[in-house]
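In response to the reviewer comment on reproducibility (Comment 2.3), we provide here a single inverse folding case reported in full, input and output, so that an independent group could reproduce the run without further information from us. The structure tokens appear first.
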């Protein structure tokens, strides 16, 4: 049963994030295929839509706060929502900010991808730097 749990974790967490968005009264549209790195679309108003990519790490993951190999083109209407199960936090980060906050791979097979390490602790410089993206503050960024 372990494989089944692992294999379905990502999809379960996508639905959990979408449920959280709906609870917060966002107008959410799910994509049928994730071939553009878009898991759902949020309608802000008649003229503004946000593309959302959802990423999650399980509480049992060795590096539960680390999201490697993110490949994307930053743009104003593209956001990532990261969920870390170990501390039950949502991190809502604009793609343009991820480009600044992450580490870009300069060599190897993953050249050009960005890796992002989220804070593990409740205090510290890194925690302060990421504070505006966490939970309710992060969800406010979508409005």
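Designed residues, in position order:
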């Amino acid at each position: 049963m372990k494989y089944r749990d692992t294999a379905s974790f990502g999809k379960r967490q996508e639905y959990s994030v979408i449920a959280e968005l709906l609870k917060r009264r966002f107008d959410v549209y799910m994509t049928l295929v994730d071939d553009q790195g878009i898991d759902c679309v949020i309608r802000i108003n008649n003229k503004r839509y946000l593309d959302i990519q959802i990423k999650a790490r399980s509480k049992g993951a060795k590096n539960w706060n680390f999201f490697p190999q993110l490949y994307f083109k930053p743009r104003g209407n593209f956001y990532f929502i990261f969920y870390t199960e170990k501390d039950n936090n949502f991190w809502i980060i604009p793609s343009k900010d991820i480009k600044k906050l992450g580490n870009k791979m300069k060599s190897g097979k993953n050249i050009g991808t960005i890796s992002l390490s989220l804070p593990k602790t409740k205090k510290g410089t890194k925690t302060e730097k990421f504070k505006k993206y966490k939970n309710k503050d992060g969800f406010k960024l979508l409005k």
